[in-house]
């Protein structure tokens, strides 16, 4: 397991894609926070709007980490070196977390600079970082299932951005309400706001994190299953 | 030759054809879903009825046309002159406390003179008027609006000469100032000319934390006094566009007119203008385009990146050593395939979904046929240009994942963010002017008009650019992306 982790680390550092991602994320978040930091009904949500943009970069990193190897054929070498496939996936997941967490933490921190500190703000900031990590893992899981990088990224982006819009067209309003609360887009809205209250929000922050975690876990579990059963 | 080769390459990749077909299916399926999910019901007095369709104007657009009209017939050319003043009225439960009924007029309450092709709602008209707080204006054709002088009292004159209607304003009834002359084509020899008063609902607008505005409408009424009217006498009263049912408000404040000592007092409530509230905008059934674009973007990006990954580009350039032609042919194939996908999607979705909506007794706001054509063709062009943009970005970056993310962020994210978040309106406005997402303006059936009192910002779904200008922004982006990709292909082929 340690060998797998170190091998992944080496691949990441020598590749050119991955380091660009946290950088891009940091720029997006910071720019969003500073440029948009004006008066609003909900300044925290406005500052953290960068989370909603930056999540695309993080998801792409998660996808690229695995689907990139399928694209170049490197995956066969990787699996030859680490024959226990779940170890490979676990190493990648751990690495992604270790990579995204500090970058997201720093970027979110800069984005909310200058806002009056408080429990709501701290909660929103921490939740944003956790959310971004989970989105990365979601990307990794989807990549393990579909293997083609462009398709995987398309699916993840659809999940992140388009689901609420599609659900709004469902005929049954009860189903609509239930499913609407299960989308990552609703969750990120609930997570990055400081106006607490069940009236304004369709989800409590804890439930929102649960929703996103369930998506990421589901994708990873399916990915692990497929990776385990299928030829590379 | 090169075109056929590129088409062959596209056609034989199964995933690509599948992606293009998926785009069509998604647009159609979501359009049908949207059509089945909408229901509408209205109250007529105390019982529930199917909603009545709003009246349509001579161009076929749904309009609001409700006012009190005190009129007489005018044969051939002629004019009407009156002194309009004493604008007053009732506003129910205004902000901030919403707890009382006050005397006053809303900013767009209107009182003045009108020439109209009969008294049917939707008939052509031209009018000069004083307004609650927007001064003296001349309006015609439900969308045209021209400001003259400030003030809530004025001498007004409206003159018909052939198809031309001229409005004049004066402070004293002696020195007249021309506002403008408008043409009403096909006006019959006999028209109705007279005095009108109307007052749109008061709007309580609250910013919605999830984006957009929450609007509550409150009934208002305006009254105005017309004196020294010439020609004098012979007036008929028509309540244009009123339903037969009178609400409690209207029973207490009935619309109509009274005449005492040469002063005619007219009371009315309603709105004259384009209607965007009493029905579903037709482009709503094309919302699936957002989701359908994603598989199209993925396929188009892969068209741009695939040959670089497999080094196939060397073979291609060996067979056709002119990179510009190769690039143009590839972009062309992607553009044509996306255009066809868009045409099929629109040609199926629009008629099927509209039919289903009608079957559900949902009122779809009527648009003129050029507008309908623009929405249909424009949506297909939007898909086509989006495909070309995605191809260009893919061929420029030569890597699929960043390209898909970049195109999605540029094309799909701005309209979604502008409508469903707390983005400040000016930021949203600039996003939808500068990014390729501006192209979704091509689907807008009802434009924003400043003379209507409801909020019409980006967050409420009104695009800042006119339809074709928005599409042109996307076209420029697509052109720039393909040009940059071609430039890179010439410099470093593989």
Short description:
By secondary structure, chain A is an all-alpha fold.
- Quaternary state of this entry equals heterodimer
Radius of gyration of chain A: 18 Å
Q: Largest sheet of chain A, if any?
A: none
Low-confidence stretches of chain A: none
Shape category of chain B: elongated
**What's the helix count of chain A?**
11
Question: How would you describe the shape of chain A?
Answer: globular
The overall average pLDDT of chain A, rounded, is 80
Q: Number of DSSP strands of chain B?
A: 21
The percent range for helix content of chain A is over 70%
The portion of residues forming beta strands of chain A comes to under 5%
> End-to-end distance of chain A, in Å?
20 Å
Instruction: Determine the strand fraction of chain B and express it as a percent band.
Output: 25-35%
Q: Report the count of strand segments of chain A.
A: 0
Low-confidence stretches of chain B: none
State the secondary-structure class of chain B. Answer: alpha+beta
Blueprint of the fold:
The complex is a heterodimer of chains A (232) and B (494).
Chain A: H1 2-14, H2 20-36, H3 43-47, H4 49-72, H5 74-81, H6 85-111, H7 119-146, H8 149-167, H9 173-180, H10 184-191, H11 205-229
Helix pairs in contact in A: 1-6, 2-4, 2-6, 4-5, 4-6, 4-7, 4-8, 6-7, 7-8, 7-11, 10-11
Chain B: H1 2-12, H2 14-37, E1 42-44, E2 47-49, E3 63-65, E4 67-75, E5 78-92, E6 101-103, E7 110-116, E8 125-131, E9 136-140, E10 144-147, E11 154-161, E12 164-170, E13 176-183, E14 190-198, E15 202-207, E16 213-218, E17 220-230, E18 236-240, H3 248-252, E19 256-260, E20 263-268, E21 272-274, H4 289-309, H5 312-319, H6 323-359, H7 369-397, H8 400-419, H9 425-434, H10 467-491
Antiparallel strand pairs in B: 1-2, 3-21, 4-14, 4-18, 5-6, 5-11, 5-17, 7-8, 7-14, 8-9, 9-10, 11-12, 12-13, 15-16, 17-20, 19-20
Helix pairs in contact in B: 1-6, 2-4, 2-6, 4-6, 4-7, 4-8, 6-7, 6-10, 7-8, 7-10, 8-9
């Amino acid at each position: 397991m340690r060998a797998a982790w170190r091998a992944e680390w080496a691949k990441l550092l020598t590749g050119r894609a991955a380091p660009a991602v946290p950088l891009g994320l940091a720029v997006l978040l910071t720019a969003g926070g500073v440029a948009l930091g004006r008066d609003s009904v909900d300044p925290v949500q406005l500052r953290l709007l960068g989370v909603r943009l930056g999540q695309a970069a993080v998801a792409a990193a998660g996808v690229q980490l695995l689907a990139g190897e399928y694209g170049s054929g490197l995956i066969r070498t990787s699996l030859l070196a680490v024959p226990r496939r779940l170890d490979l996936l676990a190493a990648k997941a751990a690495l992604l977390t270790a990579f995204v967490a500090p970058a997201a933490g720093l970027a979110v921190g800069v984005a909310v600079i200058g806002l009056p500190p408080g429990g709501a703000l701290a909660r929103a900031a921490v939740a944003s970082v956790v959310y971004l990590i989970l989105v990365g893992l979601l990307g990794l899981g989807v990549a393990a299932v579909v293997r083609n990088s462009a398709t995987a990224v398309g699916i993840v982006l659809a999940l992140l951005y388009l689901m609420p819009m599609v659900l709004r067209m469902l005929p049954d309003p009860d189903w609509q309400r239930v499913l609407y609360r299960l989308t990552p887009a609703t969750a990120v809205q609930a997570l990055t706001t400081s106006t607490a209250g069940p009236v304004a929000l369709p989800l409590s922050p804890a439930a929102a994190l649960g929703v996103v975690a369930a998506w990421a876990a589901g994708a990873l579990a399916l990915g692990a299953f497929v990776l385990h059963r299928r030829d590379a | 030759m090169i075109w056929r080769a590129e088409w062959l390459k596209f056609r034989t990749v199964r995933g690509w054809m599948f992606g293009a077909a998926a785009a069509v299916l998604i647009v159609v399926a979501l359009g049908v879903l949207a059509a089945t999910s909408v229901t509408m019901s209205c109250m007529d007095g105390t019982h529930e009825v199917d909603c009545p369709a709003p009246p349509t104007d001579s161009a076929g657009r749904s309009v609001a046309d409700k006012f009190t009209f005190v009129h007489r017939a005018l044969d051939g050319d002629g004019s009407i002159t009156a002194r309009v003043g004493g604008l007053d009225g009732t506003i129910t439960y205004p902000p901030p406390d919403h707890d009382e009924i006050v005397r006053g007029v809303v900013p767009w309450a209107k009182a003045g003179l009108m020439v109209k092709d009969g008294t049917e709602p939707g008939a052509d008209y031209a009018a000069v008027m004083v307004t609650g707080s927007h001064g003296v204006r001349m309006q015609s054709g439900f969308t045209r609006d021209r400001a003259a002088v400030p003030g809530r009292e004025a001498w007004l004159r409206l003159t018909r000469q052939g198809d031309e209607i001229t409005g004049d304003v004066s402070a004293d009834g002696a020195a007249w100032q021309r506002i403008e002359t408008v043409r009403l084509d096909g006006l019959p020899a006999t028209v109705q000319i007279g005095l009108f008063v109307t007052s749109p609902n008061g709007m309580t607008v609250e910013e919605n934390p999830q984006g957009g505005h929450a609007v509550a409408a409150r009934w208002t009424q305006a009254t105005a006094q017309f004196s020294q009217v010439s020609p004098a006498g012979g007036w008929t009263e028509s309540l244009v566009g009123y339903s037969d049912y009178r609400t409690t408000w209207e029973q207490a404040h009935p619309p109509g007119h009274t005449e005492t000592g040469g002063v005619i007092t007219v009371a009315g409530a309603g709105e004259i203008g384009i209607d965007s509230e009493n029905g579903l905008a037709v482009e709503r059934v094309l919302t699936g385009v957002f989701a359908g674009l994603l598989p199209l973007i993925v396929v188009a990006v892969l068209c741009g990146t695939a040959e670089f990954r497999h080094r196939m580009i060397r073979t291609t350039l060996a067979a056709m050593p002119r990179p510009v032609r190769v690039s143009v042919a590839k972009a062309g194939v992607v553009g044509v395939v996306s255009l066809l996908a868009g045409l099929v999607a629109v040609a199926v979705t629009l008629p099927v979904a509209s039919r289903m909506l009608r079957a559900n007794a949902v009122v779809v706001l009527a648009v003129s046929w050029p507008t309908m054509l623009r929405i249909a063709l424009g949506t297909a062009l939007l898909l086509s240009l989006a495909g070309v943009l995605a191809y260009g970005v893919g061929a420029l970056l030569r890597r699929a994942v960043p390209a898909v993310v970049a195109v999605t962020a540029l094309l799909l994210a701005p309209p979604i963010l502008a409508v469903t978040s707390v983005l400040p309106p000016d930021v949203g406005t600039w996003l939808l002017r500068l990014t390729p997402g501006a192209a979704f303006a091509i689907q807008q059936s009802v434009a924003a008009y400043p003379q209507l009192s409801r909020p019409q910002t980006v967050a409420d779904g009104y695009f800042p650019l006119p339809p074709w200008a928005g599409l042109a922004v996307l076209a420029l982006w697509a052109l720039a992306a393909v040009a940059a990709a071609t430039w890179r292909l010439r410099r470093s082929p593989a």
